[in-house]
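User: Could you check the structure of this?
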Amino acid sequence: MSQTPDNADLSMEEQLVAYLDGELEAEEARRIEELLSNNPQLRQTLQQLDHTWELLDELDTQEVAENFTQTTLEMVAVAAADDVRQSLAEAPRRRRRRWALVGGSLLAAGLVGFLAVIFLLPNRNPNRQLVEDLPLLLEVEQYRQIDDFHLLQMLREEGLFVEEDVDQAEQEVDAAQEDGSGR
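Assistant: Sure, the predicted structure tokens are below.
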């Protein structure tokens, strides 16, 4: 990663400031001294920085009031109390939002389940079995008089039970249901 000239100069200035403050390790300080001995422009920058620090030392220092620390801590405490109050005031709103999200999720899950049952399960008329057994139910009294089931099977094999009767009975039941629901 290449540094721009401004970043390189800034970094060098920071190193020079650290050199002036005596914050560098011995090896790093020797490296800076070697650079200073070979680079007159760098020596000039160091002299300007040193002069700036001397001017700062000559400035009057402002006296801080005795209660400065106390008032600063009080301001921090007030800000912290405000943050706590705001957090406590927002807590019910967050709870309501959370409950609304849970309720909405449950409602959506219920709706998805309902729609899945409606669309994925076969649309079966609950009276379908009764319609299919209608011919048998119409003649149930006659069938009760027959003691042998074998006879009924023989009659069926002979074609005496006609499927058209079942289809006609289904149509009659469907028509009756439509008349009942149309009212």
